[in-house]
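note to self — DONT lose this again. spent like an hour looking for the file last time. sequence + predicted structure for the chain T wanted, 179 res
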Amino acid sequence: MESIIILSILTLTLGLILGYAAIRFRVKGNPLVDQIDAILPQTQCGQCDFPGCRPYAEALAKGEAQINQCPPGGQEGVDALAELLNVETLSLDAEHGETKPDHVVYIDEELCIGCTLCIQACPVDAIVGASKVMTTVIAEECTGCDLCIPVCPVDCIYVRETEPTLLTFVPKLPVGAHA
């Protein structure tokens, strides 16, 4: 009976130590993926053939994708990725789209029929509304991915270029300065 109690206490103690070690020394993902993801523009547009910026970053870290597949990041993004990954820079691949000026979309509420197709297409939930009622875009949340435009059956979604303001201006920082 004493041996069962001793083994139980020993097992419990070792289990607690292993549990603590698993939490304390856990590796939280690939730090290279985080660095790549910090360079990407976070538009979640899918133009790179991946469902968002994080999956593209993971593919880049594994060597399963090219650094020149992100049109929203432009040539500057390609160059920053090349420097980070220590590979030769490439020209932006036109097959994935072209770099566009910073913009957001807006919905002409007079023409909108409330079909909600744009809401379903928005990867960042920047469009709000409900079926058969007015739909609108939260401009601060819109990444300019344009995924809502082709699904609109009445063509009431338009592009509006954004001008940097004191609140939205982001200076160009060297790679590694992003935190």
